[in-house]
Amino acid sequence: MIQRLQTVFLALASILNLSVYFTPIYEKAMNDPQLWIGIGLASSLLVALIINVFSIFLYNNRKNQIAWVKRAALLQVIGLGFCVGVLFSLGGIGTYLWDEALGTGLVIAGLLFQILALRFIKKDEELVRSMDRIR
């Protein structure tokens, strides 16, 4: 059902993906002369956000939900790669780049929530399989 714990994790991952758009790392990526970096970051996080919200409503078909969350996690890793690339192009993590590092941390936290959601979806699937064996 929708009130399962993995729904909370997927919703938190979506909220974190949305909050990255309001951090300085996104502004720096969009101000980059090579515009494909900013577009890649924005599109990968947006598509991961959409897939997370879509997969919340796939609670009846857990195998399909697992597949979609894995796809969203792959896009999240791609977005993390763009964030790390922008962060290192700014000069690495220094005392003046903590705001940009915070944006990258939000992407990492979103990825962790997706992994936790995958773990709990798999636990539900195993529970259903064990109940089918008992019947």
Automatic annotation (TrEMBL):
**Pfam families, per the entry:** DUF4293 (PF14126)
Matches recorded under InterPro entries = DUF4293 (IPR025635)
Q: Which UniProt keywords apply?
A: Membrane, Transmembrane, Transmembrane helix
Source organism, top-level taxon: Bacteria
- Give the stretches traversing the membrane: 7-23, 35-60, 72-96, 102-121
The answer to keyword Membrane applying to this record is: yes
| Protein name as it appears in the record | DUF4293 domain-containing protein
